[in-house]
Write a structure and sequence with these properties.
By secondary structure, this protein is of the alpha/beta class. The chain is about 40% helix and about 15% strand. The protein binds zinc ion (ZN).
C-alpha cells in the first residue's frame, strides 16, 4: 500500500482528439506556462463533437484499450492501429517528463447491452441519448464484470500509468446530457432486478422505498393543490418534515450508498490485483461530488477514503451552472409553484453552494455542459472544504476544479481559495477552447 505517501499531482485533463492532433504544441505550452505535471486521459475515446451537441465528452465512444481485451458484454473497442496512436502519445508524454493519470468512469456504459442499465421507480430503463453512454447499475454482476475487465485492461495495456482515478461512483446526476428533454425520474434509481435481489439478501424493503420515492416524485412534479398548499416558503424544516414521514426514503439512500461502496471495493480489488504493462503499479484514487451532495448521489466518501491512495473532491461548475437550475426549473414548471428563482436560491442554500448571482448570465444554450456562465459562487469551494476538514491525512485530498468557456479568471478565483487552504495539488478539467496557446499563457501563475 502506498496510501501514506503524499500524492503530488497537478493534473490537467486533455481530450484525446486534441492530444493526438496538437501533441507537441500542448507539451511545449504546458511546460512553458504552467506547473502541470500530470496528463489526465479518459478511459473512453470520443471523437470531437459536432457543432450543436451539448459538449458531452462521451459521444460515440470506444474503450481506450487494445482490441485483444476480452469483455463479456458488447463494447466498442479501438482498433490495433488506433490504440498504437494513443500509446505513442502516452510514451511521448512520459519522455517529456509528464506523469499519466487514467480517468475511468466505470459506470458509464458505452453502447453495451441494455440489461446493464439502471431502472427508475416506474420500471423505465435509463438508456440516455443515442450513441452516448448510460449509467450501469452497481448491483448488476454484468456491470461489475465490465468495470473490472476495464480497469484490468487499462492497467495491463497502457504503456505508462502513474494514477488510475475512478470517477462517477455515483447514481445519475448529469441531467445536462439529455437537456432539454429532461426527465427527473432519472434521479430516482435503481430498482432493477439485481437491486431487488440485493435488497432481499439484506432484508431491506425496496418495495416500500419505491412507494416513498414515488410519493416524493409526485410532490415535485404535480401542481400544488389546496390539500397540499406548500407553494409558499420552502426550506430545510420542510425537507426534514418530509423525510421524517418517509423513513424508507432515507434507508433507501443508505442502501444506494452501500451498493456503491461494494461496487467501488470490487473495482479497487481488480486494480490492486492487475499487473501493469511496465513499471510499478499505479496509485488508485476516486473522485467524489461536492461533499454536501456526495452521499445523496450514492458516494460514501468517508468510508471509501481510507481504502484508496488519494481522493479527489469535485467542485464542478455544472452543479450550480446546469444541474441545479435544470432540476429547480422543472419542479417549478410541474408544480406551478411560482418564482423559479426562489426555488433555485433555496436549493443552493440546502446544498450550501453560496447565494449565487442576482442575475444568471445565460450562455445561449448548453455550452461546455453549462447553461449559465456565472452560477458558481466564489464562496462554494470555501463552504464545501469545511465539510471534509475531518478527513485525514489531508495529503490524500486533491481538489478538482473546472475551467469552462476559457474563463481563466473564474479558475483563478477557485485555485486561490485552495491555496489559502494549503492545497498545492489539484486536478483540472478543461475543454478544447481552454487549452489554446493563448489561454494556457493566460493561465500562467494560476495552474
Ligand atoms: Zn439496480
Amino acid at each position: 500500500m502506498v496510501g501514506l505517501v503524499a500524492t503530488r499531482m497537478r493534473a490537467l485533463y486533455v481530450p484525446w482528439e486534441l492530444a493526438l492532433r496538437e501533441r507537441d504544441r500542448l507539451f511545449d505550452d504546458l511546460q512553458a506556462w504552467t506547473k502541470i505535471d500530470t496528463i489526465m486521459l479518459l478511459d473512453l475515446y470520443s471523437a470531437r463533437l459536432r457543432t450543436g451537441t451539448h459538449g458531452v465528452t462521451y459521444h460515440n465512444s470506444q474503450a481506450a484499450l487494445p482490441p485483444t481485451t476480452q469483455f463479456n458484454s458488447p463494447v466498442r473497442i479501438m482498433s490495433a492501429g488506433e490504440f498504437a496512436g494513443i500509446a505513442d502519445f502516452m510514451r511521448t508524454a512520459r519522455s517529456r517528463g509528464f506523469k499519466i493519470a487514467s480517468l475511468v468512469a466505470p459506470l458509464f456504459i458505452p453502447a453495451a447491452g441494455e440489461s446493464m442499465a439502471c431502472v427508475d421507480f416506474t420500471g423505465r430503463k435509463l438508456l440516455g441519448p443515442k450513441d452516448s453512454v448510460f449509467y450501469g447499475c452497481p448491483n448488476n454482476p454484468a456491470v461489475v464484470d465490465y468495470g473490472q475487465t476495464f480497469v484490468r485492461g487499462l492497467i495491463g495495456s497502457w504503456p505508462a500509468m502513474d494514477y488510475l482515478s475512478l470517477d462517477h461512483l455515483e447514481y445519475p446526476i448529469n441531467l445536462f446530457t439529455s437537456y432539454p428533454n429532461v426527465d427527473l425520474r432519472d434521479l430516482f434509481v435503481c430498482f432493477c432486478e439485481w437491486c431487488q435481489m440485493r435488497a432481499r439478501e439484506e432484508e431491506f424493503d425496496l418495495e416500500g422505498a419505491k412507494e416513498e420515492v414515488a410519493s416524493l416524485f409526485r410532490s415535485i412534479s404535480s401542481p400544488r393543490t389546496r390539500a397540499r398548499p406548500t407553494a409558499g416558503p420552502f426550506g430545510s424544516a420542510d425537507v426534514l418534515a418530509f423525510l421524517v414521514r418517509r423513513p424508507q426514503l432515507t434507508a433507501w439512500l443508505d442502501f444506494r450508498r452501500r451498493s456503491m461502496t461494494r461496487y467501488a471495493r470490487s473495482l479497487l480489488d481488480a486494480c490492486r490485483g492487475a499487473s501493469p504493462a511496465r513499471g510499478s503499479k499505479p496509485k488508485i484514487g476516486f473522485y467524489f461530488q461536492l461533499p454536501s451532495l456526495s452521499n445523496l448521489v450514492g458516494t460514501d466518501h468517508e468510508t471509501l477514503f481510507p481504502l484508496f491512495d488519494y481522493a479527489c473532491v469535485k467542485f464542478p461548475d455544472y452543479i450550480p451552472g446546469s444541474v441545479l437550475p435544470i432540476v429547480t426549473d422543472k419542479i417549478s414548471e410541474k408544480t406551478r409553484a411560482g418564482d423559479k428563482m426562489v426555488l433555485r436560491s433555496t436549493m443552493r442554500e440546502l446544498l450550501d453552494l453560496g447565494p449565487g448571482p442576482k442575475r444568471y448570465r445565460p450562455l445561449g444554450g448548453m455550452k461546455d455542459v453549462l447553461l449559465y456562465s456565472n452560477a458558481t459562487d466564489p464562496s462554494m469551494v470555501e463552504r464545501q472544504l469545511k465539510r471534509i476538514s475531518g478527513l485525514k491525512p489531508r495529503t490524500k485530498i486533491i481538489p478538482h476544479v473546472w475551467e469552462h468557456n476559457g474563463d481563466v479568471a473564474s479558475l483563478r478565483a477557485k485555485i486561490e481559495v485552495l491555496r489559502r487552504h494549503g492545497f498545492r495539488d489539484y486536478t483540472v478539467w478543461a475543454f478544447e477552447d481552454g487549452l489554446t496557446r493563448e489561454n494556457l499563457r493566460t493561465a500562467s501563475g494560476v495552474i
